[in-house]
Amino acid sequence: MTPEFRVVADDVDVTAAIKARLVSLSLTDKQGLEADELTIVIEDGNGRVAFPRRGVSLAVALGWKGEALVEKGTFTVDQVGHDGPPDVISITARSADFQGSFKDQREAAYDSTTLGAILETIAARNGLKPALHADLAGIAIAHIDQTNESDANFVTRLGKDYGAVATIKAGRLLFVPSGRGIAASGRALPAIAIRRKDGDRHSFTATDREGTTTGVKAKWHDLATGAAREVLAGEEGTTKTLKRLYPTRAEAQTAADAAFKKRKQSGHEFRVTLARGNPAIIASAPVVFLGWRPEIAAIDWITGDITHTLAADGGFTTEITANEADVE
């Protein structure tokens, strides 16, 4: 089998030119609100390669010869380097979805609204379409401030408060319960089966994240008395208290429940490299590992960062990071 790829730069197919000098092509699909990253390294031994321009748009597809290529998104070149010897040019590009105002600091206040309405507002002002899980969209929020905080940080904070994860894919702002596999369309992703014979090497670790913590407390402002009150998720004993003062009891309880649930999850992590790359594997997708020890196979997994790498010698590998999924 021969790896295949396609790179289109500002609507011009440059695949042949890159292929003639390719050292490596690496594409990392990031989980959460981090931009996916593309790195292309090409040989420049004779110094005749035109230096790539920053700001160029690169549309990339990966796969195998004789099979349909998998579209991996559009990236904007933001860094170009030259190293040697041997002389090479390195081109780094990041997901075009993160090139707008999403990381600009701003001031905003939201009153008597819902989590879904807030996220729809944020999506609209960043030119994105919202894809919100039904379990989260209707959550009532009495008041919340966004003070000198980027939309990226604010959405991440909302995710922590409500047990969710946010990401941007294919022009959509996704906001779903943590540990659930959701596609850019907003639909649930089917599980991917990875068999041990597909893997080149692997690493499994299990860490006790819960430790001695028995519960998580959150404070809320009681308007009737003006006092700060507490709610508890879990049990009294060794507890952790969240820093934020929530405007209602319901919001405080939701935040405490989400934080306690996260602390209870074990620190299972599994890393595996596929000797035969699979471009269809993406971040935040459910995955099943077959053929490894039963302690590994029995866990419900969801993918984290995924890195696809093509090399000049014809190799194509996929590195998978997976964490324990939320199956509730």
Structural description of this entry:
- The radius of gyration is 23 Å and the shape is globular.
- With 328 residues, the protein is α+β, with helices and mostly antiparallel strands.
- The chain has helices at residues 15-21, 115-125, 134-137, 151-161, 249-264, 294-297; strands spanning 3-9, 12-13, 22-29, 37-43, 57-64, 70-83, 88-95, 105-114, 129-132, 140-150, 164-169, 172-177, 192-195, 199-205, 215-221, 228-234, 239-246, 269-274, 286-290, 301-311, 316-324.
- β11 (164-169) and β12 form a beta hairpin.
- The mean pLDDT is 88.
- Strands 1, 2, 3, 4, 5, 6, 7, 13, 14, 18, 19, 20 and 21 form a 13-stranded mixed sheet that branches.
- It is built from 6 helices and 21 strands.
- It starts with a strand and ends with a strand.
- The longest helix is centred in the C-terminal third of the chain and has 16 residues, at 249-264.
- It has 4 domains: 3-98, Phage tail proteins - horseshoe like beta roll fold (Roll), CATH 2.30.300.10; 105-177, Phage tail protein beta-alpha-beta fold; 192-208 and 267-324, no CATH class; 215-264, no CATH class.
- This is Gene D protein.
- It comes from uncultured Alphaproteobacteria bacterium.
- Pfam families: Phage_GPD.
